[in-house]
Amino acid sequence: MAYFRRNNNSDDLNIWPGFVDALSTVVLVFTFVIVGFLASQIYLSKIILDKKSSVDNLQSQLSEVCSLFDSEKHKNKELNDINSDLKRQIIELNRVIEKLNNMFNEETQMANQENSSLKDKIDKLNAQLKEVLAALAAEHAASEENLKALALIKNENMKLNELAKFNAYRSEFFEKLNNIVKDKEGIKIVGDRFIFQSELFFDTGSDILNEEGKEQVSELAKVILDIGDKIPSNIRWILRVDGHTDSRKIMGSGKFASNWELSAARAISVVKHLIKEGVSPNHLVAAGFGEFQPIAKGNAEEDLARNRRIEFKLDER
Predict the structure, then answer these.
(1) Would you say 196 and 178 are in contact if contact means Cβ atoms under 8 Å apart?
(2) 235 lies in which domain range?
(3) 38 membership: H or E segment, kind and range
């Protein structure tokens, strides 16, 4: 009996460890399930929160879109109203244009009729005018010839009066210049010209005024300025300065190749000095004649000296 009990106790002891292991396994499984469930709940909660945030954003954007749509809808309504008003205005303008076109056509038709009538009247008046003009032309032909003759005579009288006035100023010029140069050797008056021997102004073969020449030209400039102030502006006048040489040819390769160039250069030098003294270049002319306008025909030294000269002449332009 005692032996049987020991065996029973031995069976009890062998069952308990298995039960404990099984129970532990169940607890571990249950714990794992609980942990998994909690982890899944946390994950799902996060996903739900993210989705909710996205939904909120979408709802906000949708609200903005709805607001914009309402605004565009309002603007579209306003544009439709404006378009309707414009259509009404265009229709009204087309009516006005049509009315104006009709009025214009009527006025054009009336104007054409009046123009036709006026043209007939103008043609008749032109015919009458031609007849009158022909009669007047025939009647006044002689008068026109007389008027032309009178105009020509008047013009000639004006020219003669200007010439007479100019001659008076030229006489005054001659008188004043004569008072300056009278009794001076190498200066002569021939007709309407003052003749200065070249030696008074220039050295042999030179176109540069010497001191005596500058003094003579300066005195001449004073007379010209005095007379020029008195001559009316409608009288066109000039002072001619003519350069002349003798017949002896220029030798060598100097500054001047011919007497033409020497005579012209001397006349220009005199004109430049007159301008320097205040005489207007509009009233001055310089010309060179070389040896081709002699006043003495001989070849003696005296004749050659007479031909070397500077001439001044106050003349009309």
Answers:
(1) no
(2) 183-316
(3) helix 2-181
In a domain, 277, yes or no: yes
Q: What is the pTM of this model?
A: 0.49
Q: How many domains does the chain have?
A: 2
Considering the domain boundaries, does residue 47 fall inside one? no
| 27 in a structural domain | no
- With contact defined as beta carbons under 8 Å apart, do 236 and 316 qualify? yes
What size, in residues, is the chain?
317
Q: How many CB atoms lie within 10 A of CB 314?
A: 26
Instruction: Give the tokens for residue 309.
Output: 């000269």
Angle at 133 between CA 130 and CA 134, to 5 degrees: 85
88: tokens are: 């009404």
Q: How far apart are CA 270 and CA 200, in angstroms?
A: 12
| pLDDT, tens digit only, all 317 positions of the chain | 444 444 454 445 566 677 777 778 888 888 888 888 888 888 888 888 887 788 888 888 888 888 887 888 888 888 888 888 888 888 888 888 888 878 877 777 776 777 677 777 777 778 877 877 777 777 666 566 656 655 665 555 555 455 555 566 666 666 665 665 565 666 787 777 888 899 989 998 899 999 999 998 998 899 888 888 887 777 788 899 999 999 998 876 678 989 999 999 999 999 999 999 999 999 999 999 999 999 998 889 999 999 999 999 888 77
Distance CA(62)–CA(60), nearest Å, equals: 5
Q: Residues 75, 151: one domain?
A: yes
Three-class secondary structure of residue 255 per DSSP: coil
- Residue 120 tokens, joined: 């007939």
Name the residue among 260, 284, 259, 283 with its Cα closest to residue 270. 284
Between CA 112 and CA 314 the distance in angstroms is 70
CA atoms within 13 A on the CB side of 281: 7
